[in-house]
Amino acid sequence: MKRFLEAVGGLTLVCGVCGVIRELTDGWFRLMGLTRFLTENAWFLQGRELFANIVIAVLGLVILIVSDRVRKA
Q1: What pLDDT, on a 0 to 100 scale, did the predictor assign at position 35?
Q2: Calpha distance 56→60 (Å, rounded)
């Protein structure tokens, strides 16, 4: 379980950071197309893509912190 949480948290953190970089560079940084798919296709996130990517990055960080507190199974 600990390894699974670490993998999910790391992937979520990387996706969020790549999305933040992509939004700050106005679409120039196209490494992770997943973030564009997640944030631009949701009607309630239109105009808030940067905030959504920051939330995704923070969520990844929280998952990584939780994975440190979980006992190794």
Answers
A1: 76
A2: 6
